[in-house]
Amino acid sequence: MADINVRIEEFDVVIVGAGGAGLAAAVQTGLAGLKTAVISEVYPTRSHTVSAQGGINAALANMDEDYWIWHMYDTVKGGDYIGDQDAMEFFTKNAPKTIIELEHWGMPFSRTEKGTVYQRAFGGQTRNFGESLAHRACAVADRSGHAILHTLFERTLRSDIAPYVSYYSEYYALKLLMNEEGHAMGIVAWDMVNGGVHIFFSYAVIFATGGNTRNFRTNTNAHVNTGIGWTLCAKAGIPIKDPEFIQFHPTGIYGVGNLITEGVRGEGGYLLNAQGERFMKKYAPHVLDLASRDVVSRGMAQEIREGRGVGPKKDHILLKLDHLGHDFIMDKLPGIWELAYKFVGVDCTKDPIPVQPTAHYHMGGIPTNIYGEVIKWEGDKEVPIPGLYAAGECACASVHGANRLGCNSLLDLVITGKQSGISAAKWIREEKPVFPNPPEEYVADKYAKDVIDKLNELFDGPEGTVKMDEIWEDLRDTMQHNMSVFRIEEGIKKQLDIIDGYFEKFKNVGLTDKSKVFNTELVEYFDLESLLYVSKLETAAALNRTESRGAHYRDDYPERDDANWMKHTAAYLKEDGSVELDYKPVRTKPLTAPTFQPKKRVY
Amino acid sequence: MALNVGDKVVFKIFRYDPEKDKAPYYKDYEVTITRTGMMVLDGLNQIKWEQDPTLTYRRSCREGVCGSDGMNINGVNTVSCMSHIEDYDSNVLVIKPLPGFPIIKDLVCDFEDFFNKYYVVKPYLIEKTPPPGRERLQSIEDRNKLNGLYECILCGCCSSSCPSYWADPDYLGPSAMLNAARYVFDTRDEGSDERLDAVNNVHGVWRCHTILNCISACPKELNPTKAIANLQKEILKRKY
Ligand code: SF4
Ligand code: SF4
Ligand code: FES
Question: Are the Cβ atoms of A46 and B60 closer than 8 angstroms?
Fold first, then answer.
């Protein structure tokens, strides 16, 4: 059959995704003088990193005494002890350096009276191993994500990097190429603007595709967050680590899900139930509203469940911050003022913002070691897959364990992004792998036939009898219902069947838009397919984990069970579409610090 | 005009698919108000998901920070995700791609020229002296000078509303120059001379005739005109 406008290019490195993690990687491969392609569904500054608000953690000690080991302890505890402590040490230890580097690259941090980087309090961040609140989140007002994304992108525009980095914006990745020996060798992508298949061959591939909670009714994610990195890796036989741990952010705007930063609570805002009670004192007597996110979200959901929710449906909670004062809000939280005003008509200098727990973030992902190398397991041993790297939210090192702390995600994406770039460069420069260079004539047929066939089928085939919207709307509702803050066997089991039903229905989805130019229906088709796989991996893993840990809470197994469940899930997508689960040891030994042993989590 | 749930509004949308249409045309769609505070983007999604999957537009963050969905709604440029349908006070919304930008398909236009102009102003920190071991210090006051500049989302609404931008294909435009100002007025930057050189010409700061369209177009309420005027002042200050 006709090939769809195939073009082939060769690069040293292909980075999939141009958010913070992808750009942090591109800085490194660019500095190393490697010919780099960054392919992204959207122009870099449109990536979802832009929506992060609160800040980025580092024990800079600009406000009060602080040490990386305290940050590490909080991260281990926040993650409910299932995080890999070597990665957590690497991550927290390198944080201060990372902030300084970003500042040097021009990041417009808010400042203290002394002129240093301003740091605010955030949930789960403490001094001296839980003793008192820490001010650790380095902030750019409440636009920290925008600032970090623009700073990283701008860094790649400087003359020492720009000649090496080519941006392929509005390209949609459709397949990860691996050779017979199991090395990554490139990406097959769809050129959205011109309409054509683009094959990128490379020594190394770095995945940095971000998050994927568009499968929930209320979520903080952008439209592009559909998990294509997970899906492409899973289809290539790479397991997804810990997909059951999905973070529900306590304060998404009621009804629409847009994020209201935890920084509001960090600066002194607090939550109220319908009786006007500061209910968090029941769930976290020491730090109240600044407990870690899983604890706060569960507290809120519990209040709602027991009938103390706000509004005619008693289904949300109020976030009060007017007592912080008009000037303070406009100076430190201008973005959330705008969001609350625009989305629910609330002037938060006067009235509280209606909020609800909202799907936000994946702690799990494409499994990596601390070097950003994607690994597979041989028995219990982790073995790097040559030429394959992953960073940021789509990856799992795991620095967040079962629950991420606020402001650790921006840190994650710069540190793991940078590390994956350094590792890819090191591999290419030092190991001198052979370039995967198949003869031109056979290429499209050999490497992209499945993709081309699928595209032809969609373009030439019928419009389909099922509307995508039907599946998508349903998926969001059922995931929200069965896979939310509280989970129970019956519901999760039902959800698995429901998802299988969606896959059946999805077979009858076709395209109405047959145009090859900027076909966003085609993009949504692959988005939805990806979210179905993501949902399936999440749900299957959640069913098996018969304990409650971090963000994964089982009504039928309310306790953490270290004896049986102190282990990572490795979820494999099989050829027949089923999910196979395996379990792998937690890396409990840090690089130099002593191991933090599991304790009961109290906030 | 207050709109209630259940009310209908007509979206009259510019359509053009280069693969099949000889010329652009407008198509009417009926959008049902499903909640108070419904945005134009919600209306577009409703059309795409329920009525006509071929309708094409960009979107991502749906909260006014990614800059994907700049478009012209009833004559005014803005991002659709932050524009309440009811604020237009009309039963009919005429929706067009950003004026002056080449059209790719429907509401999607080509930003290449816009971004190239942004690159011209060297939108990154230029350092000449090596940085200290810690962060550079900057006073709160100096940092505040960047407010109103660093928040740009590169949505193109300002440049696309500027008559000088339409008339002079080489004009850098308000967005690029606001981004130049972002660094010129950053006390940490040491590259202002080269950056000012890039904008000190008839296609740069001197092309602006303070028509002010760009200010009313900016969904982030930034003020490119003021940024351009400040660049002009800075150039004069340095030269003479
Ligand atoms: S003020 Fe200047 S930049 Fe703005 S619209 Fe007018 S001419 Fe264009
Ligand atoms: S200045 Fe405003 S209108 Fe212009 S590109 Fe930036 S955000 Fe958009
Ligand atoms: S969708 Fe991001 S600005 Fe509108």
Answer: yes
The pLDDT tens digits for A526-580 are 999 999 999 999 999 999 999 999 999 999 999 999 999 999 999 999 999 999 9
Residues of B in contact with A114 (CB under 8 A): 137
Q: Report the separation in Å between the CA atom of B184 and the middle of ligand 2, taken as the mean of its atom positions.
A: 17
pLDDT in tens, A335-347: 899 999 999 989 9
Q: Which residues of B touch A53 (CB under 8 A)?
A: none
pLDDT in tens, A53-80: 989 999 999 999 999 999 999 999 999 9
Quick one: B93 and B119 in the same domain? no
Same domain? B58 vs B124: no
pLDDT of residue B209: 85
- The model's pTM is 0.96
pLDDT at A482 over 90: yes
Orientation angle between helical segments B112-120 and B173-184, nearest 10 degrees? 30
**Mean pLDDT value across chain B:** 95
B133 contact residues in A (CB cutoff 8 A): 100
pLDDT of residue A263: 87
Contact (Cβ atoms closer than 8 angstroms) between residue A188 and residue A448:
yes
- CATH for A1-51+145-207+223-229+236-245+363-390+423-435 is 3.50.50.60
Percent of chain A with pLDDT over 70: 99
CA-nearest residue to B59 within chain A is: A223
Which residue's alpha carbon is nearest to atom 6 within ligand 2? Answer: B152
B157 lines ligand 2 (CB under 6 A): yes
* A59-A146-B112 Cα angle (round to 5): 145
Question: Is there a contact between A108 and B186 (Cβ–Cβ < 8 Å)?
Answer: yes
Q: Which residues pair with B109 in a beta bridge?
A: B103
- For A462-544, CATH number out of 2.60.40.10, 2.60.40.1890, 3.30.565.10, 1.20.58.100 equals 1.20.58.100
The question of whether A293 is a catalytic residue gets the answer yes
Which atom of ligand 3 is closest in space to residue B153's alpha carbon? 3
Confidence bin at A2 (pLDDT 50/70/90)? low
A541: amino acid identity, one letter = A
Average model confidence (pLDDT) across chain A: 95
The predicted pLDDT at position B240 comes to 54
Where do the domains of chain A lie?
1-51+145-207+223-229+236-245+363-390+423-435, 54-142+558-603, 252-358, 462-544
For residue B1, the model assigns a pLDDT of 64
Distance, CA of B101 to CA of A160 (rounded, Å): 31
Q: Which atom of ligand 1 is nearest to the CA of B161?
A: 5
Tell me if domain A252-358 and domain A462-544 are identical in fold.
no
> Exposure of A311 by Cβ count < 10 A (0-12 exposed, 13-18 middle, 19+ buried)?
middle
> How are beta strands B8-15 and B25-32 bridged, if at all?
antiparallel
Q: Is residue B180 domain-shared with residue B200, that is, in the same domain?
A: yes
User: Relative to the CA of B225, which ligand 1 atom is closest?
Assistant: 1
Cross-chain residue pair B52–A512, CB shorter than 8 Å:
yes
Distance CA(A339)–CA(B209), nearest Å, equals: 33
A252-358 maps to CATH 3.90.105.10: no
pLDDT, tens digit, 9 for 90 and up, residues A281-320: 999 998 899 998 999 999 999 999 999 999 999 999 999 9
Ligand 2 centroid to Cα of residue B73, in Å, is: 16
- Helix, strand, coil: what percent of chain B each, to 5? 35, 15, 50
A486/A517 Cα distance (integer angstroms): 43
Distance B144 CA to ligand 3 centre (A): 25
Answer whether A222 sits within 8 Å of B58, measured CB to CB. no
**Which backbone phi and psi does A70 adopt, to 5 degrees?**
-70, -40
Q: Are residues B227 and B122 in the same domain?
A: yes
Taking only the tens place, the pLDDT of each residue in A399-456 is 999 999 999 999 999 999 999 999 999 999 998 888 877 666 677 888 899 999 999 9
Pocket of ligand 1 (CB under 6 A): B 162, 164, 174, 208-214, 224-225, 228
Domain identity same for B117 and B231: yes
CB A147 within 8 A of CB A108: yes
**Among B109, B136, B165, where does a domain finish?**
B109
